[in-house]
Write a structure and sequence with these properties.
It comes from Faecalispora sporosphaeroides. GO terms for molecular function: oxidoreductase activity. This is Aldo/keto reductase. The chain is of the alpha/beta class and 329 residues long. The chain has a single domain, classed as TIM Barrel (Alpha-Beta Barrel), CATH 3.20.20.100. 39% of the residues lie in helices and 19% in strands. The strands form 3 sheets. The chain has an 8-stranded parallel β-barrel with strand order 3-4-5-9-10-11-12-13, surrounded by 6 helices. A 3-stranded antiparallel sheet has the order 6-8-7, with no helix packed on it. Helix 5 links the parallel strand 9 and strand 10. The longest helix is centred in the C-terminal third of the chain and has 18 residues. The protein is globular, with a radius of gyration of 19 Å.
Length: 329
């Protein structure tokens, strides 16, 4: 698999990474077999997909526990990222939401993220985190970035984290983070059908040599081509009320994918592989994060790690996606 450096950190990872949100199960994704998830993580490492990303809130600790179990004996071969700032220990914080019987709050105060870290280290059965993200920035009135960053830098000095990252942030947030220290990676939604980051965030990352880890590059499975118009979204699932999963918009995405069957034949790949390869080609500062909880899904995604699309085909896919977006608006 092709590799890239994470920002200027010196950490080298595969251009594709494994997202462990679905591994957490729960009402977002439904229950799953943890033993299959462990095998999927092992498969990812074997395929050169060495960056494993999780978060405390994924399954309310369950995803981290499964990842920790999977990395036992293989910790040094993995680049492990998790997050802080979404907590359900108490009612301290802002932007509260409820899920699976837990009340979750955004809290990036020094005290709270220190507890987040210690809880994650325990669940992951490790004494350090390679990449530590702030999960969601709190609105005005939350902990100031100066406080958050000071604690993250302290964690880094202690050797408990190696790289500081931020997720779901704006360029204004990043300006503030960079006043106090180095941020090497951010995580943000980016797909063929959702390219908002290209307006400002991705150019900012390129200017400051920050990696953008793109989550939901396959629109949570829609762009694999395996979802049909007949698919009914279960109530409460992660796909509920998502723009491209709504039938009135989904049909334009599926029409787009159906127009690329000649490309799958040309490159000997799946539709999902085409979409992942297009995403990785948009910038050398992109890492493509794909969720999976079965070995078959990991192997399929990994095939895109070596796929190089001709420029004319990249441009054709972009035009077709632009048409789908215009039709769906």
């Amino acid at each position: 698999m092709k590799t890239r450096e994470i920002g200027e950190s010196g950490l080298i990872t595969g251009v594709l990474s494994l997202g462990a949100w679905a591994i957490g199960g729960g009402s977002w994704w439904g229950e799953n077999d943890d033993s299959l998830s462990v095998r999927a993580i092992h498969c990812a490492l074997d395929q050169g997909m060495n960056w494993i990303d999780t978060a405390p809130v994924y399954g309310f600790g369950h995803s981290e526990e499964v990842v920790g179990r999977a990395l036992k004996g293989r910790r040094e071969s993995a680049v492990l990222s998790t997050k802080c700032g979404l907590q359900w220990r108490d009612a301290n914080g802002t932007n509260h939401f409820e899920r699976d019987g837990h009340n979750v709050y955004r809290n990036l105060s020094a005290r709270s993220i220190r507890q987040d870290l210690e809880d994650s280290l325990r669940r992951l059965q490790t004494d350090y985190i390679d990449i530590y993200y702030t999960h969601w920035q709190a609105p005005e009135g939350g902990a100031p970035i100066a406080e958050t960053m000071a604690e993250l830098l302290k964690m880094k000095q202690e050797g408990k984290i190696r790289v500081i990252g931020a997720s779901n942030v704006t360029t204004a947030h990043l300006d503030e983070y960079l006043k106090y220290g180095k941020v090497d990676v951010i995580q943000e939604k980016f797909s063929l059908l959702d390219r908002r980051v290209e307006a400002a965030l991705l150019p900012y990352c390129e200017q400051h040599k920050i990696t953008l880890q793109a989550y939901s590059p396959l629109e949570q499975g829609l762009l694999t081509g395996k979802i049909t118009m007949d698919y009914e979204i279960p109530a409460g699932s992660v796909h509920e009320n998502k723009f491209w999963w709504m039938p009135e918009h989904r049909r334009f995405a599926l029409q787009m994918l159906n127009g690329w069957l000649d490309l799958t034949e040309k490159y000997g790949c799946t539709l999902g592989n085409l979409v992942i390869a297009w995403t990785a080609a948009r910038s050398k500062y992109l890492n493509v994060l794909g969720g999976a909880r079965k070995m078959e899904q990991v192997k399929e995604n990994a095939n895109a790690g070596e796929l190089v699309l001709e420029q004319a085909d990249l441009e054709r896919m972009t035009r077709d996606a632009d048409a789908a977006i215009a039709n769906a608006e």
